[in-house]
Write a structure and sequence with these properties.
Layout lengths: L9 H4 L11 H8 L7 H14 L5 E6 L5 E6 L9 H4 L4
Family: Belongs to the DNA mismatch repair MutL/HexB family.
InterPro entries: HATPase_C_sf (IPR036890), MutL/Mlh/Pms-like (IPR038973)
GO cellular component, one term: MutLalpha complex
Length: about 90
């Protein structure tokens, strides 16, 4: 399980009347933003969609060795806020 998701406890999942509470927005985002990328086409699609989601109006996709060595996406979107850096990738 991801270190960013904490399993719900009975106290946090129910409102005291047996009804299920809605998942908070930040948890929904983390649950739905995970993607399984199985090929180059899907990887590029996801990267371009990220650019569009960030409001980019200019997107440049560059491949080294037909994408086998690297894929680079440069855009003019809003980027990732510093407060979200820790949720992108684990620290080494």
């Amino acid at each position: 399980m991801s270190e960013f998701l904490t399993p719900p406890t009975p106290e946090s999942s129910f409102n005291g009347h047996g009804a299920i509470k809605a998942i908070e927005g930040s948890s929904v985002h983390r649950l739905t933003s995970g993607q399984v990328v199985i090929d180059l086409q899907t990887a590029v699609k996801e990267l371009v969609e990220n650019s569009l989601d960030a409001g980019a109006t200019s997107i440049d996709v560059r491949f080294k060795n037909c994408g086998l060595k690297s894929i680079e996406v440069v855009d003019n979107g809003s980027g990732i806020s510093e407060k979200d850096f820790d949720s992108i990738a684990p620290h080494f």
